[in-house]
Amino acid sequence: MNGDREWRDLLIYDLTNARLCLGFSSLEDNWTEPSDTRTFATPLGSRFLRFMSAGA
To answer: Which of 7, 12, 19, 56 is surrounded by the most beta carbons within 10 Å?
Structure first.
């Protein structure tokens, strides 16, 4: 997602407005280093991810 900043920003904006992820003041720092320990999903977002993964 690093290649298309406008698309990424729109995606984060929509997910934040749906209360599925936390808002970011600066997106650049959040996409450079993946981490297994931090989450950007809200509790509702985590529930949604579990629901979507259950059918897989």
So the answer is: 12
